[in-house]
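haha ok so turns out i had the wrong file open the whole time. this is the CORRECT one, sorry everyone. sequence first:
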Amino acid sequence: MKVNRLLSLRGGLSRRGDARGGVWRVLPLLALAAALFAAGAAPAAAAGSTSARSAHTTSTTSTTSTTNSTTTAAKPKPVPPTGIAVGTANVPKPHTTSHVGVRPMTTWTVSLSVSAMYLWPTQYSTLTATASQDVGPTPYFIYIINANTGAAVAACGSGTTCAVTLTYPTPTYDYFYAIIATSSAGANQQAMSAEPGVEWRGIQLTLAASLNTLPVGNTSTLTATSDTDISSSPFYIQIWDTTAGGGPLNAPYTCGTGTTCSVSVSQSVATTHAFVATFAYDSTTYPPSGLQTTSATSYVTWTASGWTISLNAPAQTINGPETITATANGDVGPTPYYIQIFDENGTRIASCGSGSTCSVSYTPARYPGSCFVAFVASYSTTLPPANIQASSNTACSQYVYIG
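then structure:
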């Protein structure tokens, strides 16, 4: 029965991935001034796995033992500058202004400056447009326009300057320009500024375990890594145990500086736990508020089975599917277990009932891509599968189309 099921599965393994992702614009991430890495927990040496192959059992009453050092110095949340409108600015024409007989200006100029071009979400940047002369006695307004949406974020009917403060809750990249005109659509436009960009930056966040499968009682070190120093941000990297019924779900390890955050975890019974890292406000409940990004899930299995498994997938595939391969340390054929590969969106993409390797041709999603994990476990279509004997590393890939 196991071999027949395997053959029927192999006929359906070559298929394209899901269409989620669409066309995304990758935000340019520019590093801030470097700060020293926050002190993390020292990885513990992991003992080798045993050779006995015993059935894996899960305990919902198990607890995760963690060791770490705190780096959670409080960070102030951003506050807007005083005296400047936040979000949109609207200064109407003075009621006493008369435009009858006003001679048109022969030369208008307008410039646009930004107080910060590179900042974190929830932080504030002030945009200031400066005209060459007072627009009050004229039919014109100073407008500041979001070039990506075409919407006016500021309109001023008097004076030579027009200012507005903007912020975004999540990563955004916008261009802005200023005009002198009678409408925000550019009617009777007299002048236009340059078009500076403002980036509310994001980060790329990964989470990896030093050991994804290890004996009961041994220690694995989880390390979250950001591609940007987070010291100047109002956010924290936190590592969470998201396993239902176990682990320090409400006591994550937290880091507020540097680019890495680590914690050592151990289990006293045979079990598999799922861990994720987040970039958000400091929180004791999951998911945290102000969430900017979440890493892929890393699975860690404590077991006496003796099985191990690894996963290999290219980081990027161009115009087509890629080959994803899981490799176990033994032939699963004589056992009740299968090598199974899952897309972390919940879809099982491969299941092999014999041999020590299992491969599949698969197309990952476009940016931000797809992440995959493999198991030696009982036959299952749910993630995570039942009776896990070994968990692999997590591998992420991205589909890129070049026309």
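The longest strand covers residues 172-181.
again sry for the mixup
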